[in-house]
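Homework help board

Subject: predicted structure for assignment chain

Our instructor gave us this sequence and asked us to write out the predicted structure in token form, then describe one feature. I got the tokens but I'm not sure how to describe them. Can anyone check?
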Amino acid sequence: MKLASTIGAVSSLLLAVNATGFPSEVLQQILGSSPSTSRNQPNFVFIITDDQDLKLDSIDYMPLTLSHLKEKGTFFSNHFVTTALCCPSRVSLWTGRQAHNTNVTDVSPPYGGYPKFVDRGFNDNFLPVWLQSAGYDTYYTGKLFNAHTVDNYHSPYVNGFNGSDFLLDPFTYSYLNSTYQRNRDAPVSYEGRHTVEVITEKALGFLEDGLNGDRPFFLTVAPVAPHSNVDVSALDRDVPTVMTEPIALDRHQSLFEGVKIPRTEHFNPDKPSGVNWIRTLLKQDEATLEYHDHFYRQRLRALQGVDELVDSIVKRLEASDQLDNTYIIYTSDNGYHIGQHRLPPGKTCGFEEDIRVPLLIRGPGVPKDQVEDAVTTHIDLAPTIFDLAAISLRDDFDGTPIPLPSSSDSVHPRHEHVTVEYWGLSYLEGEKGALSNPDHTALVLNNTYKSVRIIGDGYNLYYSVWCNNEHELYDLTTDPYQLNNLYTASFSQYPEVQIFGHSLSQVITRLDSILLVLKSCKGATCIKPWDVLHPDGSVQDLQNALNPRYDAFYTDQARVSFDRCERGYIPESEGPQDAVSYSRYGLSWDAWA
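My token output:
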């Protein structure tokens, strides 16, 4: 036992530091196959796009992805991110933790970006490191985090990968002028080549390494499409950065002529909607709408290269003997809006367009051509990968494995809620982004909020509290486009308004109380927050909580509020942190029966 432990420790150490230039095949000769894994364990190919919408139908314009992954796998129709911004969302995905637990809440220092990721200790403690310790070979190409740059890529090098080739700032979003950095080599410019073309070559190279290895592999491919393009030369001229429409490969430039953004009820509405700065947005004129339709088409065109990338990966797996032993997971870091609620292109909001993203999974035992409507989130993905790889779950996971056949015999708890949280800036993208804003700026300073998205038997709700203490409540069963803020109706304007048979005040007190738990939850309390309020287990969902016997308890509970708006997660600025449990409240069934 002592010898095996020593071998395992040395193996983990060598894998963790393997950005030193050891070729993967040399490292494998040193290590051999891990005693805890075998080639029969499943492989993983994880594809994560950047800013891809679900609600605006982009996935419907990707026929190869639909054929390979949706028809041959399962589509998760209620999959959400927990922070609608790339870097915080990705850190939450790779750690299985809410952003208030990672405290990586922005795209750049001091509150986010690669330096904050390192400062928080996650370079030694995130998914690829854990998978290497479990005997996997790990590979990555594409965008990792913002503020991972040509100047700091080696300070320190990213841990956890047998092979890596990262996109680096400030060239990450420059479609025709990207810079990649492989293993511990110096950065290399690919100016003049399309970034999706470059990443396809790199992805197939790492896939070849994985297929030729003796151990199971985990490959992440992170193309920048369909994110906005950023002209790097503008940075040299010291002019304001404008995120313009993405650039497609030449062969896709003429596709989708005449396609327009879906003209739903909340697209550029006549009346303002939402709260806070969103309610001040100006109605967009015809020239702006034409530009935004063009922007939308360019996003669809940019995704065609990703569609072909998926096709190339699946075909290479088909040519090997590993396709039936490989899980392919496809998702995005956050969603996207264009024109809804008068918003210019962008993300960062709690609306459906921003927090819902595609999730497609194909692999051993995964049902084919099936739609799964269970509520799932990005913080569930790391636990899901652990479960599928038969690795014991970590106690610090804020998520739980999603409903898929797996090697685990245990039944994992499900949840009906998503904790959505955001701090700091909102970014108004596109050449006309600032025109929607009355002060004609492309940055909004006051975009901090906490919210809960909850879907259960008979209810479909979104409730949020902003840092200026404005509130929103939408019943998406009757108001799928989130145009009618019911929170204002709860204050005697429309006392007859009910949600699935309950008064607004009853529903709001329950939602506020569960949000009070979720805004600072950790581990199991993020998965089963009702247990904090009802430790005896008598309440497991919103429907249970609406029993009239609990009315006084929820009415007297502390309310979610902010003392002030901050750019990052500063708990002392965020009002009450702890909820009182029903047992401590001192009520009993006899008192309220």
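Reply (TA_rk): Your tokens look well-formed. For the description, you could write something like this. Residues 1-35, 587-593 have pLDDT under 50 and may be disordered. That's the kind of observation they're looking for.
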